[in-house]
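Journal club side-thread
Mid-discussion, someone asked how the predicted structure for our own chain would compare to the paper's figures. Pasting it here so we can look after the session.
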Amino acid sequence: MKVINFSNDPAKMPPLLYLEQVAEHCPKAVSTYLLIWREKDKQGKLIIDKDEIKNNYLTTLTKLKNNLVLLVKEALISIHETPNALHIEVVEWNDIDYSDIAC
């Protein structure tokens, strides 16, 4: 994985509750989640070229996909895989549908 530099820019960090959820439920994916938040664009999207994963992220495609699946299961990201790339979209506070949540 790339070295994670913590930023003072709140846009480059996930909300604390999301980060706590990842740390508690899928700790192996914390660095992946932070990396996605750091590199996503203003629309919350990130495209990772499969050929660049080993050099840029210092991991294998399989390990990265395993971490991404953990984040999908937590409903924190969505993924669309093409033959050449992984298209990732981050779920943000405004994207959550609270209508199904019983109080």
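Post-session note: The chain is about 35% helix and 15% strand.
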